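Entry 14. Ran structure prediction on the chain below.
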Amino acid sequence: MATYKLAQVMAQTRLLASQYREATGQSLPVTVELARFDAITLLGLKEVPGAEAEATLVDDNSKEFHVQIKGRVIFPGGKSRQMVGQLNLTANWDFTVLVIYNPDYQPTAIYSAGRQIVEEAIKETKNNKRGAMTVAKFKAIGELIWETQDKSDEQSLDRQSAS
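Output, structure tokens:
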């Protein structure tokens, strides 16, 4: 059995997911794994063994914060109200990070929001028992903590989000 570096496997996953979407119009369910990998890699988080979408952030004073990780691919012509998905309000986390992807499954931006802010935003939304939130709402309440250097991707995403 060949041994692969995780970064190489993720690069192949991005390519395969993009090609699959282009060929079938359907998405492969790989965004959560890509988001976890990218958040850990790009933000310098520590991996939590066995956790599907969690990591730990250690600040400059060695204090640990638990992070819930979400990801969303923004496709051209997609729904105007893209959803982040269900936020787990019963889990132990201090922050949620949302990794935004372009149609090639490349990260373009990462937003972060603290637990209290997320819970308040969910409470404000009527009939929201599942903890879901739109990408636009998360971006509005969150803070941009990482973005790609490729501004053409960012401008394209902004146009799509506005529609």
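The longest strand covers residues 64-73. Will compare against last week's run tomorrow.
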